[in-house]
């Protein structure tokens, strides 16, 4: 059936295509969650950039994939911070490392970003040591500067990372911090903003306190960390989607929930639409390591595959947004459809 889906002439595509969300920036070309990755994504035409938010000891929202800094910074090589190494249980998993909430912003400024998956993205490792950990404020200021330069609106799509853990572990309320920071920066509900989380209660509180567009993240396995009796598999049933629609505007769904093993659409998008929810798919990545065998190219895990075909399959299924590590390639597919 995949062969039939690859006959692209038969796939209906929206005139403008889905919104392109730069997943951690142009992270296939620069170390993720750096200002360089975000700027490159904007220059490539991304509609939104996606910063994952964690918090410092002095309550500054900063951007990292996880609150554990071990894989995305050079903290392990900094002798002055060796005593900050901790073991923590986060969302049910014991993790060893150095955690953002144990550092002040001034201390974080000493660290430098590095490529998280150098075996797959060795070219990105050339930029190791060049970039600091950015703050949410710096991301917003970059977006505004690029809007002034390009004359187009650029959205932000932040994800709150482990908010329940931080509330219980350190008494840090990410909902309060985010809304306060938005007010300080003049970010309003009229701006192109989505706020996302894998947790339910966090989004429900945001819904009660603001009118920002909210996105419930879902995946094939597990369930929300703040709702141990819930499973994502149940949340994506028609009744579960109806409950999500009471507090969120969209779901951010793993591609495996949208397309079956043969590439044909599941019922998720139709079910979500019936509940009044949009569907944004995650994550479109260009390397073979992240693609099914039928879409892989030459060159092993780090070689590039046929993400244009996968993107067209997602568009055909009816997604209205796509997270991607390679916004230039996703934008090209949108352009070719016009």
UniProtKB/TrEMBL annotation:
EC number(s) reported in the record: 3.1.4.46
Protein name: glycerophosphodiester phosphodiesterase
Domain GP-PDE: 18-334
Organism: Altererythrobacter arenosus
Keywords noted in UniProt: Glycerol metabolism, Hydrolase, Signal
Residue runs in coiled coils: none
Pfam family, one: GDPD
InterPro entries: GP_PDE_dom, PLC-like_Pdiesterase_TIM-brl
Catalytic activity: a sn-glycero-3-phosphodiester + H2O = an alcohol + sn-glycerol 3-phosphate + H(+)
Signal peptide start-end: none
Enzyme class: hydrolase
Lineage, top ranks: Bacteria, Pseudomonadati, Pseudomonadota, Alphaproteobacteria, Sphingomonadales
Transmembrane intervals: none
Family: Belongs to the glycerophosphoryl diester phosphodiesterase family.
């Amino acid at each position: 059936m995949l062969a039939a889906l690859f006959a692209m002439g038969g796939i209906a595509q929206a005139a403008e295509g889905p919104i392109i969300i730069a997943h951690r920036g142009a992270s296939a070309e620069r170390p993720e969650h750096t200002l360089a990755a975000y700027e490159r994504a904007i220059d490539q035409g991304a509609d939104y950039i996606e910063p994952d938010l964690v918090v410092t000891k002095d309550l500054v929202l900063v951007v990292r994939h996880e609150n554990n800094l071990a894989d995305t910074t050079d903290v392990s090589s900094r002798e002055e911070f060796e005593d900050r190494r901790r073991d923590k249980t986060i969302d049910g998993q014991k993790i060893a490392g150095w955690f953002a909430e144990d550092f002040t912003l001034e201390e974080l400024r000493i660290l430098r970003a590095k490529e998280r998956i150098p075996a797959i993205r060795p070219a990105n490792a050339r930029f190791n040591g060049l970039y600091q950990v950015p703050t949410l404020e710096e991301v917003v200021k970059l977006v505004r500067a690029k809007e002034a330069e390009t004359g187009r609106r650029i959205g932000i799509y932040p994800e709150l990372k482990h908010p329940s853990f931080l509330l219980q572990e350190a008494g840090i309320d990410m909902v309060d911090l985010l809304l306060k920071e938005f007010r300080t920066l003049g970010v309003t509900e009229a701006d192109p903003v989505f706020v996302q989380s894998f947790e339910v209660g966090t989004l429900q509180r945001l819904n009660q306190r603001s009118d920002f567009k909210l996105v419930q993240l879902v995946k094939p396995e597990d369930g929300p960390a703040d709702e141990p009796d819930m499973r994502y598999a149940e949340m994506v049933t028609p009744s579960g989607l109806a409950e999500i629609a009471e507090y969120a505007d969209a779901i951010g769904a793993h591609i495996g929930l949208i397309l079956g093993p043969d590439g044909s659409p599941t019922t998720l998008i139709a079910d979500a639409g019936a509940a009044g929810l949009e569907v944004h798919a995650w994550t479109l990545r260009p390397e073979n390591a992240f693609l099914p065998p039928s879409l892989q190219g030459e060159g092993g895990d780090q070689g590039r595959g046929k993400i244009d075909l996968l993107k067209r399959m997602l568009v055909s299924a009816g997604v209205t947004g796509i997270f991607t590590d390679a916004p230039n390639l996703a934008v090209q597919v949108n352009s070719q459809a016009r």
